[in-house]
UniProtKB/TrEMBL annotation:
It comes from Chilo suppressalis (Asiatic rice borer moth). It is found in: Cell membrane. This is G-protein coupled receptors family 1 profile domain-containing protein. The chain crosses the membrane at residues 41-64, 97-118, 138-156. InterPro entries: GPCR_Rhodpsn, GPCR_Rhodpsn_7TM, Neurokn_rcpt. Keywords: Cell membrane, G-protein coupled receptor, Membrane, Receptor, Transducer, Transmembrane, Transmembrane helix. Belongs to the G-protein coupled receptor 1 family. It is a multi-pass membrane protein. Residues 1-153 form the G-protein coupled receptors family 1 profile domain.
Amino acid sequence: MLLAIPCLLYSTTKVYRSKGTLKTACLLLWPDGLPDVSYMDYIYQVLFLVVTYAVPMLGMTFFYSAMGRVLWGSGSIGEMTQRQVDSIRSKRKVVKMFILVIVIFGICWLPYHGYFIYTHFDPSILYMKYVQHLYLAFYWLAMANAMVNPIIYYWMNAK
């Protein structure tokens, strides 16, 4: 909720004419200018990247690694029954699932966050013909992460 406060405070609409028709755009109007020139927007995007991407990636990596070490390393001494072999195989499959969840999260969300950081350094991209399509593709990919996780869980766990 705290990350949404700047959007609440600085969001506005702007009506402009494009090819003879009136269009309305919703944008953030920071105290120091529009996002393409605003240093406040850049700081906000970096903070947003850290809070919603870097911290979750580090957290998942740390905690899944800790669980994975326990699961992967668990074995038994001496001869193993088939049930023990199946149990070890199942635990190792869970570790592989952890790795896949982290990788998919990284792949899905990095382009979205990278887009906003990149536009600060090259604002001309905002005026390219298909930039809205590119943004929507990155947004779709980020939102697809929520759909992909249950598929991964179902695919990698028969239970």
